[in-house]
Amino acid sequence: MKKLLVIDDEPGLRLMMRAVMEDAGWFVAEAGSGEAGIDYLLHNEASVVLLDMRMPGMSGSEALARIQEIRPSLPVIMLTAYGTVGSAVEAMKRGAFDYLSKPADNEELVAVLEKAYEYGRLLSENENLRKKLAAGDPSERIVGSSPAMVHLLELIRQAGPSEATVLIMGESGTGKELIAEALHEASPRSPNTLVKVNCAALPSNLLESELFGYVKGAFTGAIKDKPGRFQLARGGTLFLDEVGEMPVELQAKLLRALQERVVEPLGAVRPVEVDVRIIAATNKNLREAIARGEFREDLYFRLNVLEIVSPSLRERKDDIPLLVSRLLDKLGKKNRKDIRTVSPDFMQALMEYDWPGNVRELENVLERALILSRSEILGMESLPGQFHAGEIRPALTAESAPSSFSRMAEPEPERIIPRSRPRTLDDAERIALMDALEAQGGHRERTADALGISRRTLQYKLRKYGLTKRN
User: Fold this and answer.
1) Which residue of 32, 265, 356, 437 has the fewest CB atoms within a 10 Å radius of its CB?
2) Confidence check: pLDDT of 388 > 80
3) From CA 64, how far away is CA 53, in angstroms rounded?
């Protein structure tokens, strides 16, 4: 059950929050002071905390710091009133998930709390994944709880113990090698070696000798026998990465090795038997390569006994918070920087980016941000330019924050500036906003969804172009 703790010294506000959130299916607990809220969390569970900035006794800032000590992954949303913008900014810099103004708009209240709950749930699942990894479950090195990743992990659990040849398909940077490792470690062959060959990294003549080996005197410089990777992987698994790049002339020899379980080292007079399981991976569309004559169809069917597709990061964006947590832990140790938290704006920017380079690109972006950050929390200023160009979500600052957090009224159609031919990018954006608002009947939430931006970004832009009226 979703559990909300409201920490506020105003009984009327707590009552209103309880009514709204219980109608939304939440269990709601109340605390009239920071001290009472901390005491509750020491003895009870909560999914999200709504915390007032200004209270007698322990302030909201002090309570936030204490909550982060006892429940580091618990999302906290600050309740702010007029004149507390600066405090809200500081609270978010110190790790608050978000803020809401008083009195809170019911629709926005539910939306923000649901988002915070999902964020906290993902962090909790990631912690469970870490524990399983520490216990030695190899598949738990593959981070994710999205439907695509649940399906992937199930395939690994089913395919791992078999002897079947597996073909892993997927874009570069999606973790195909990690899937191969998990398959090997889930198999009866795991006590033996997993041998890896990158078929794209070696020229044709060297790749042949690496795979199949050679005997002394096979060519100039062959002064002793050299076993190939098939022989080195005896009893274990051979991983052929980027198999789609293998030269056509070698594919026939690989096909024979798969069919007959023998290899012919260069210069040998008789074949050598091999006992090895094959796992191959490629980022190419092999059916298209077959049509172009670049890949043998019979080899494709021999490799593709079981096919596993490694999903792209844009297909499983719900896993980004889990990946960020895991990667920050790894990169922090590597670079000797203990940064484990990102700002909500930073996380939203990651969630809205398309990730053409997949998890590998995410790791590079996080490492860059971690190295350049001067704060204990990664913020938007640490992200490279492509995350700022589209104004994904402007970071809240004391200078840019609105002077009042009262609910923004629906735009008045009669006051909207008449349409005219756009002369600048700002003109074009203003007109697009007006068109979207009219198409959605002035409904802010639906307008934000239609434009693919957050509600707060929409509010920011409406204020920017004077498309609002004050209460």
Assistant:
1) 356
2) no
3) 9
